[in-house]
Amino acid sequence: MITWRRLTEEDFPLLRSWLAQPHVARWWHHETSPEAVVRDFGPAARGEEPSEDLLALLDGRPFGLVQRSRLADYPDYQAELAAIVPVPDEAVTIDYLIGDPGQVGKGLGTLMIRSIVERTWVELPDASCVLVPVAAGNLASWNALRKAGLRRVAAGELEPDHPEDDRDHYLYRIDRPTPP
Q1: In which pathway does it act (predicted)?
Q2: Per the CB 3.0–4.6 Å rule, which of 17, 120, 165, 174 could disulfide with 150?
Q3: What would the pLDDT profile of 27-58 be if each residue is shown by its tens digit?
Q4: Are 96 and 67 within 8 A, CB to CB?
């Protein structure tokens, strides 16, 4: 059973260690200095940013992170995605990582994505869909999205998160279930 809580500044040392892990650093090109983590994650942790940084916990122990935001809160990013695929005003996006290297390759990415999507329908009742861009070369990530029930709806060029990657991305989407 995955549980969730907001990332706090007390979690930053753990987050720094995760961002430095080779399997994370390959796709999350991020500075790991204390100052960089405070700069980039502090506003959301303090509630000053509209996005949410959520720790995923398994049996009470953190193993992953999900960033969740409404695309309308980030109009430049929304416009970048809208150049490839229609983006509803109520669309939500996520980014995610499994930080604990001992938990990689066990299916937790799929479970984490499925869990945050289900929470999104409850916690954000106006969210129409979850739309997730992923680097085309990140097979593990887009495979986890697919297994979690998202479907590939487009392919196009976006600015890569990591300088080693090209601009090729896939966009995955899941729509809010319709009531019976």
Answers
A1: Siderophore biosynthesis; mycobactin biosynthesis
A2: 174
A3: 887 888 999 999 999 999 999 999 999 999 99
A4: yes
Are 138 and 172 in contact by the 8 Å Cβ rule? The answer is no
DSSP 162: S
In the chain, the DSSP E strands lie at 2-6, 52-58, 61-70, 91-98, 129-135, 151-157, 168-175
Name the pTM for this structure: 0.92
The phi, psi pair for 40, rounded to 5°, reads -90, -30
The SS3 of residue 92 is: strand
Single-letter residue type at 31: E
* CATH code assigned to 2-175: 3.40.630.30
Minimal CA–CA distance to 104: which of 26, 38, 44, 10?
A: 26
Give per-residue burial for 70-83: e unless 16+ CB within 10 Å, then b.
Answer: bbeebeebbebbee
Judged against a pLDDT cut of 90, whether residue 101 lies above it is answered with no
Structure-token pair, residue 73: 């809160």
Enumerate the domain spans of the chain.
2-175
Neighbours of 69 (CB within 10 A): 19
